[in-house]
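Write out structure tokens for SAC3/GANP/THP3 conserved domain-containing protein.
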Amino acid sequence: MPTWPPVTPPAGVQTAPYAHPIAPAYTAVPLSPSQHAKARFTWPEAVRQYVRRSFLPHNLDPSVDRAAMESKLKEVINSARESGRMETQNWEAFALPQELVKQDRARAMRAPQESLPTNPAVSDGSHSRTSKKRKSADGPNDKTTGWRATVRSQQTLGDRVTFSKADKSATEETAKGLSKLQKRQKRFDGGYQSTYRSPTPPPSDGPVMGTCQDLEKSYLRLTAPPVPSKVRPEAVLRQSLVIIKEKWRNENNYHYVRDQLKSMRQDLTVQHIRNDFTVSVYELHARIALEKGDLEKSDKAIKHALDVRSALAVGNYHRFFQLYLNTPNMGAYLIDMFVARERLAALCSICRVYRPEVRLRFITEELGFESDVQAAQFIADYNGEHLLQARPGEDMTVATAKAGQLFECPRREAFRRVDIKGQV
């Protein structure tokens, strides 16, 4: 290929800028990998087990919410990762996050108490500060004479004690303060009178003997020990009950009757009267409240009885046996009269739904038995021994698929049984 000599342009002619190659203004650099791409981190199995153990139901603490627990868990794991203790940390013995949260809370509650001064010198200092506040309230206002603090700070201890005349104005101010102090002291020339009063003795636990003769009395909630002059005895209460019955029949004023009956119940309670008359008062109040549909004021026992009736009406045996295990007072003795019948009905439902078998412990919990032995004995009493199956290393099970009509006949017989009054 021939080589052409360079050509020089004529004088006065300018060459185009693109006629010669132009060097790039920058140097090409290969792209670096994204800084956001992070290497994938493999969590140790011990850490995974620690996280799973933290969220197990039996390890959860109602006092620690999930957000606080997750925050503490992230803090623990990030701290171990940054310090390089992920592999060496004994995660099996390490405290769970909910325990760490509770420890932090306890430490925060102890912090104000631990920060209180225990040194007597510090305590005296705080007492002196309190005394200064009290003196400033009684004496002249230091804010209006701010120069006094400067003058006093410049004086020596001897000057302040001997009231040196080096600063005459400061001495005059001190004398004025002393004169005011003497005037205040003259107010108490009669001697110190203690304002302490002995505490009121606690009210007696014994009954109150009422002396009030009012046949009608409005109900007032007790905010102090009852006074005998405002409590009606039983004889007066019997007359009041007759008047209340007559007014209920004639006027049918529920608000008035409810107020009077509540007042009667209060008088009976503070006098510890528990007899047939007390029962008649409570019975009348309950009957009138049911007649008017006032169930909002029902106590715990009445609400529980209504819940039991609702559970039986809809056939919710799970709810019924929960109420049976949480019966207030002695209501469980009433439910014991028909609980066997309801257990038979519930057992029939379980055998139809849960197949081919269920754990005996499930039946114990669902039917409100005290133990697995009691549940097994109940099944055996109705010829169900062959349904109980025990396998080595496993819980005892009940072969519900083999039950068939085993419990249906006793159930029908239990619900068909009627006493002489026509009650089931």
